[in-house]
Specification:
260 residues; alpha/beta; Rossmann fold; 7-stranded parallel β-sheet; binds nicotinamide-adenine-dinucleotide
Amino acid sequence: MQHQNKTFLITGAASGIGRACALRIAAEGARVALLDIRPAVESVAQVLREGGAVCETVVLDIADPDQTARAVEKISSALGPVDCLVNNAGIVDNIAPLARMKFDAWQREIGVNLTGPFNMIRAAAGAMAERGWGRIVNMSSAAARGGLFRQVGYAATKSALFGLTYNVALEYGRQGITCNMILPGLIGTENVLAMPQPIIDTAIAATPSRRLGTPNEVAALVSFLCTEEAGFINGAEIDIDGGMRLNTLALGSIKENRRS
Ligand SMILES: NC(=O)c1ccc[n+]([C@@H]2O[C@H](COP(=O)([O-])OP(=O)(O)OC[C@H]3O[C@@H](n4cnc5c(N)ncnc54)[C@H](O)[C@@H]3O)[C@@H](O)[C@H]2O)c1
């Protein structure tokens, strides 16, 4: 029960990696606040409460600073001040050649993927600093390093999380807060598993570990970064991608596979 007496706030907790984080971290003893734009987040809370967890939900749009400020206030009075903030919610809204991307969709990806974590940190970090302890984890993507074909908004916002993460670490480190960033490769969430099989197969072939990651593997890393023991990991970018970032080598392996 390594997170006993801690309050976690997890965004994008209705499905995928966020849901896996919620299930794992609640099982490790934390009080958990689950935030999502979809009311389906309540069904995750239901599962947690049935397992005996203390849990609150807020349906909100993290791109809106008023909604995020109100959510943090509500959670702090219901569960106690936020100790650990997991900025997991993210979207891909805009898959197209750059010249055909819609301006509104570009703005929306910036709003959710970059301004969202900024809003959440701005709302939660002050109380962490007052108490001299806090953990912040930003969910980026392998796309932050290598880009993602025809997803410039997604790739650009996930790269922008480098700057946000570094600055929060610089500004708040002396107040006992760490801020780190996770870069998953392709993870077998509901949405990913629903993708066409050739896309999944190509991603697996480009991954030295030759498989998808699991949501629970990402949740385990999130959980560790929020422990006491992880207190000297600050401003770090941690890849969890089965080696997918080693792209030149991986592409060599695709050819090798085709011959075999
Ligand atoms: N699944 C992967 O392979 C993968 C790979 C790299 C990075 N990621 C990142 O991991 C995170 C989780 O991805 P996932 O695959 O679990 O996706 P998902 O779509 O299953 O979960 C994202 C959640 O965020 C919520 N959300 C979207 N917009 C929101 C908003 N404005 N306000 C509040 N909540 C909002 C969604 O409703 C959803 O429940 C994302 O940031 C994603 O970019 C995922």
